[in-house]
Amino acid sequence: MVSCRSRSRNGSGSEMADRDNVVRLRFSRMPYPGQEAPQDLGSTKLTRTAGAGLSGAHGHWCGRCKGIWYSAFGEVECPVCGNRHG
Asked: Which UniProt keywords apply (predicted)?
């Protein structure tokens, strides 16, 4: 079994602090320092018209608006800007 702990490069065997080895992923659930929270773009017109509410809706990311919009159906278009490519 391979250990997940990193060791220093000098081979002395001393372990580096875990926080020194953290690689922040682009889609991490924890915001970066100074990063603003995503906007709530609301739900699509079809979802509101059908009265589905947000109980069965799925969230979708809009990179143009930097926010999350919701749909209970198979829609792919941001209700704010019309972006279809995430």
From this structure: Plasmid
Domain limits, the chain: 37-85
For 46-82, what is each residue's pLDDT tens digit?
988 888 666 788 899 999 999 999 998 889 999 999 9
Phi-psi region of 2 (alpha: psi -120 to 50; beta: other; left: phi over 0): beta
The pLDDT tens digits for 9-20 are 555 544 555 556
CB crowding 51-86: b at 16 or more within 10 Å, else e: ebeeeebeebebeebebbbbbbeebeebbeeebeee
Nearest-10 Cα torsion for 41, 46, 51, 55: -50
Amino acid at 77: E
Q: Which segments of 9-74 does DSSP mark as H helices, in order?
A: 45-50
